[in-house]
Specification:
The structure is a homodimer. Chain A is α/β, with parallel strands linked by helices. Chain A is 21% helix and 27% strand. The longest helix of chain A is centred in the middle third of the chain and has 16 residues.
């Protein structure tokens, strides 16, 4: 199994094949939800990226799963596979290259190690959970172009993430050309000469670097929400020929899908990619569903024209919108988890999307949460080093991460399956309220409203303890007494309050 | 002319005819936009409210205006008239009662005294001005049921208003039955026996009290936005017979329309008055336009179903909505001033419409202002004496009035004709910006956004001074330098900022 403990080294070096399962299958046991990497020597003449087809079928009990392999340069062909159950697995390859065809082997899948909870999938319609059953309270941020920054910035990004509340990172596969992002990347995904891309070949080093980044995120418990296409481009990647787009997708699926922390985001602002039609997007979605044997989470992100998230290929909605109050109705319409992947960013840049206060960023997280949806963070402060977290990573400067951490802790403490809204909530109503489906936890969020008393309508026959939470000051104040049915409580008469009720004795 | 310097006395006493112009016209000169009250003795037998018709036509140069008179009890008939131009006016009465018919007289209208700027009307399509040309920066609040509170509370209300930024007060003609308003009024508008109203008679004392309240508001420079119908009723006034509604309207028009500070609001939450049809409302609107010879400002206020404010009888829109960002588009649609008469209230009561923070109330004023619209204040704090300003008047407890005063001062300092929006602004855009039509003043409001720098696009060929304003901390910080064209400024990187540019040398 490939272990890249230093992705900076990987980024700088030639392809590192390293330790891997042998092609005969006499390798080490593979922990469940880890991955095995089969590595074969094969043809290096001609164009291995196009000429050679390689796949392997993995068998376990009565199931078989087929994944594609990929050419990693220097005559090396690889197949990555994530076993999802313990026990004996066998595999057989298939290839049009005789030296890669009909190889077979076996390995044992064993219990996962600590910190390996498996991939995340949709749970209870609107929420997420790890494969081992642990709820996953989605809490995302963005470092869109961190893959193309200085190695020390990349290391810093991982360190920052490991001490942050964020457990999902949106990041681009392709380099980014945009405000604050006007430099050439250290490598290109395809061989490039002047302004001409050789789309018939991939640059394995480029993708090996992404391997390493994704695995570093995996190491610190962060989901890698991989953005497959985006419009912030000067190199041509937003308008490649159709067959190149599909080849590219199959290549990244073959490389990355066995990493348990991978999510697919077909695009950032898909509607700004003017060269692509809806039919094109359909073909990309089909490619994802066909070739990703592990069924990793899939979505797409828009600018102006909201994507039709009811479509079956989307596992969840990854919206760009600041109208947080629409979350509950969208959730009900689409019957899927709703993540506000982009609701603007905390920062102080002179772009309307990048100068929210930390308080406002926090408020948006609460507003989404109280509707059973999820919110996304990003940060755009004009710091002297010009390293803006939103795109470059590095360090965080804002006030919202600590407040978001407070919210995430509250949710993880008490909500096993994630909150769900009580009926319909909208901007005209206060407080918003959400509850765990078994009513074991019910919370109310007052947002900008500041009532000095409120009558809460709790389920009869259950007894609750309660606490008052100041969502901005980050204080938790127990409210004395046992509560049941209609409960009138005095409140501080300040905005940003939340009242949490927890069933006693469970 | 009737002068009620103590409205508490008026409320308690029998009809006070007092000093008035004589029926022969040999009275004192009347200041422009003040009013003359003609007082005649007439029939007191039968039912003077229904049996006797009285009107008078006033002539000045080539104009004549006809107003209805009203019976004020005890055999006294009155006609009130507000002359709108200086010079000699003559008048002649018409009545089916011989002793009231064909009376005539004359008076001289002279220049107004200090503080008398005339009635307010629409100016520059979207704004307001006094008849003497002074801009009127609308800044309203509500004391819906102040007419029915203890006399000392009424005195306190006037005192509070006279020290507040508020220059318009929404108030009900009929008593109010609602949360925090569950008591009988000291008087009824119609004679009442048990639960039965005698709609064939008015109670003059009731309306004399309103005369006095309106004149007290006039004394302290506050427009009386009279709410003619409302649904918070237990006495039957929301569902009177059709002919009673019209008789009532003609009676209040005859009594109040000559007071220069009167505005008409056909209803509060008209759509909650279930006994009334759209045709009914049309008939009331027609009555206002036909019988109010002075053309005082007219609007109506809704709960859920927005009124069609494009209708010709409405001089302006008096909306109830919290979606402040729709102001600019409504303004453009209706081509009329837009006032958010109700966007919820500062306070801490457990009703969703009554627990905004002072900061949020202030923010709503700024958001309306930056779109060339107007906002309304109200206050609902659960104070120990249970006197809530929103309905009862009394004293103010909140933090927004001082902040609203700050905004009003800024506007009055600099904007002669009121601000108008630059193109279309919406929730997605920041900053909102507004400008005086001649570009002499341009201001930007950043709301919750906190950019640390911004490029402003000022008109070429004009030179501006500028200042940074913290709309919540109420600080004004001059920005050095002369500005023209594209101007990049450093900003504090905090929310709630506003930058004002003023053309130099004007």
């Amino acid at each position: 199994m490939l272990k890249l403990s230093s992705f900076a080294a990987a980024a700088a070096s030639a392809p590192a094949i390293g330790e891997s399962a042998s092609s005969t299958g006499a390798g080490r046991p593979i922990p469940r939800w880890d991955y095995i990497e089969l590595c074969f020597a094969g043809p290096s003449t001609g164009n291995p990226f196009i000429d050679v087809h390689l796949s392997a079928t993995f068998h376990h009990k009565n199931r078989s799963l087929t994944v594609e392999g990929f050419y990693d340069g220097d005559g090396a062909y690889k197949i990555r596979f994530m076993p999802d159950d313990v026990g004996n697995w066998t595999w057989t390859t298939s290839s049009n290259a005789p030296e890669l065809d009909s190889k077979s082997g076996a390995f044992e899948c064993v219990q996962p190690g600590e910190g390996n909870r498996g991939p995340v999938s949709v749970r209870d319609d609107y929420h997420f959970g790890y494969a081992d059953g642990t709820p996953y309270v989605e809490c995302g941020t963005t470092c869109y172009a961190w893959a193309f920054q200085a190695p020390e910035t990349q290391r810093q990004t991982i360190d920052t993430l490991s001490h942050s509340p964020f457990n999902k990172l949106r990041m681009c596969i392709f380099p980014k050309w945009y405000e604050y992002n006007r430099k050439e990347p250290p490598m290109y995904p395809f061989p490039r000469s002047g302004d001409v891309n050789d789309y018939s070949h991939f640059n394995p080093a480029y993708f090996q670097h992404h391997d390493a980044l994704i695995l570093e995120l995996r190491r610190v418990g962060v989901q890698a929400d991989l953005i497959l296409f985006h419009p912030y481009d000067k190199w041509g990647y937003q308008s490649m020929p159709p067959e190149v787009n599909i080849r590219y997708l199959r290549y990244v699926i073959a490389r990355f899908s066995a990493f348990r922390n991978v999510w697919w985001s077909l695009a950032n602002e898909y509607d700004l990619l003017k060269a692509k039609t809806n039919t094109d997007w359909d073909s990309y979605a089909r490619t994802l569903t066909e070739y990703d044997a592990f069924g990793q989470l899939r979505s797409i992100h828009y600018s102006h024209h909201q994507y039709e998230y009811w479509r079956a290929w989307c596992s969840h909605a990854g919206v760009q919108d600041s109208r947080m109050t629409l979350a509950a109705s969208w959730r009900a319409d689409w019957r899927k988890p709703v993540i506000f992947d982009e609701c603007k960013y905390e920062g102080d840049i002179p772009s309307r999307w990048g100068n929210l206060s930390g308080d406002e960023m926090t408020r948006r997280f609460w507003e989404a949460t109280a509707q059973g949806a999820y919110c996304g963070h990003g940060e755009t402060y004009l710091v002297p080093d010009q390293i803006l977290w939103w795109s470059h990573g590095g360090v965080l400067h804002g006030s919202s991460p600590a407040k978001i951490a407070f919210l995430r802790k509250l949710l993880e403490e008490t909500i096993a399956v994630g909150p769900g809204p009580i009926g319909f909530t909208n901007f005209e109503e206060s407080p918003m309220s959400a509850r765990r489906s078994n009513n074991a936890v019910i919370f109310y969020y007052f947002d900008l409203h500041q009532p000095a008393q409120w009558t809460f309508d709790l389920p009869q026959g259950k007894i609750y303890s309660s606490e008052y939470i100041d969502t901005q000051a980050l204080t938790r104040t127990p409210i004395s007494g046992d509560h049941s049915g209609k409960v009138e409580l005095k409140l501080p008469g300040k905005p940003w309050g939340s009242v949490w009720f927890r069933e006693k004795g469970i």
